[in-house]
Amino acid sequence: MEPRVTVIIPTTAVSERRDYLARSIDSVLAQTSVNVSALIVANGGRCDDALLAKLSRTKNVTVIRFTDESLPVALRTGRKYVETPFFGELDDDDVLLARGLDNLSAGFRRDPEAHVIVGNGYLRRDGFSDIESMTDIDLLRANPLRALLQRNWLYPGGALFRSDAVSERDFSHIAKYYEWTYLAVVLCLTHKVSFVSSPVFIHHIGLPLSMDVSREALFGRIEALRTILSLPMPSDIRRGFRRKLGAQFHGCSAACLDERRNLGAAFTHHLSSLTYPGGWRYLSYTRHLLYAALTDPLRL
């Protein structure tokens, strides 16, 4: 019997994203060797009503809608509505590769005790230049939590979850702008994660209207990392994420300086960066802030 799978697709459903969303849905419905349906979670007040009405009439597509424009809330809401034994997620501008869900479900046949199967994929920046999401799967399998300190390995479209193991509670405090890193940490701490080397998705970075490279995301990731640090992780892993938080403060300081915004905010973020592990790396940057303060004091 083919596994029954729900793929959650959060979307703001604005008309400008119509083509992206259609491509994502098509990649889900084209999957073989699984009994798949798409659950469209339209969130926010900018949704294209005609688009949602059309999707509601599409076979194997269900649409739910709420007014709060929030990816974490959309993920949690989507999980709440899952009624199949397995589920996945796909961003509205990403795609599943042919037989992607079949390759993930095969992971459960090889490791029936696993709670989630994570597959390889391609990260595509600005429409080209693919790199693989997993570069050393043996190292990843040995210590997936530590591997997160080097790079994230959990992406939209890249995992299949057992519904009886991964619950709505696991999605209850997802960190905005680091949704998948947060979820990866939670899974490592509380569930059995298994990996397959087969590429199963394409994740697009930097497309028009994308939030992942926005200024809002850059600054929002400070609070996201604080949320991740609230999890009960081992001390060495905590230190690694604190180091990441210091780097995020530095990035925000540099953005304030480069954009000729409030120099006071640049100083504040810089001083914060120095208090975290590895903060000594940013000491030499101080001279750039001092130079800006001396040459353009009105920015203070």
Structure characterization notes:
There is one protein chain. With 300 residues, the protein is α/β, with parallel strands linked by helices. The protein has 2 domains: 4-205, Spore Coat Polysaccharide Biosynthesis Protein SpsA, Chain A (Alpha-Beta Complex); 234-299. 41% of the residues lie in helices and 20% in strands. It has 11 helices and 9 strands. It has helices at 18-29, 49-56, 71-80, 100-110, 137-142, 144-147, 179-190, 215-229, 235-258, 263-273, 286-295; strands at 4-11, 35-43, 61-66, 86-89, 95-96, 116-125, 128-132, 159-162, 193-205. Strands 1, 2, 3, 4, 5, 6, 7, 8 and 9 form a 9-stranded mixed sheet that branches. A hairpin with a 2-residue loop joins strand 6 and strand 7 (128-132). Helix 7 packs parallel to helix 8, helix 8 packs antiparallel against helix 9 and helix 10 (263-273) packs antiparallel against helix 11 (286-295).
Classify the secondary structure makeup into a structural class: alpha/beta
- Mean pLDDT comes to 94
Task: Compute the separation of the termini in Å.
Answer: 66 Å
Helix content: 40-55%
Order of SSEs: EHEHEHEEHEEHHEHEHHHH
Strand content: 15-25%
Please give the count of helices: 11
Task: List low-confidence stretches.
Answer: none
Highest CATH level, the class of the largest domain: Alpha Beta
What profile does the largest beta sheet have?
9 strands, mixed
- In the CATH hierarchy, the third-tier topology of the largest domain is known as Spore Coat Polysaccharide Biosynthesis Protein SpsA, Chain A
What is the number of E strands?
9
At CATH level 2, the architecture of the largest domain is: Alpha-Beta Complex
What's the name of the CATH homologous superfamily of the largest domain?
Spore Coat Polysaccharide Biosynthesis Protein SpsA, Chain A
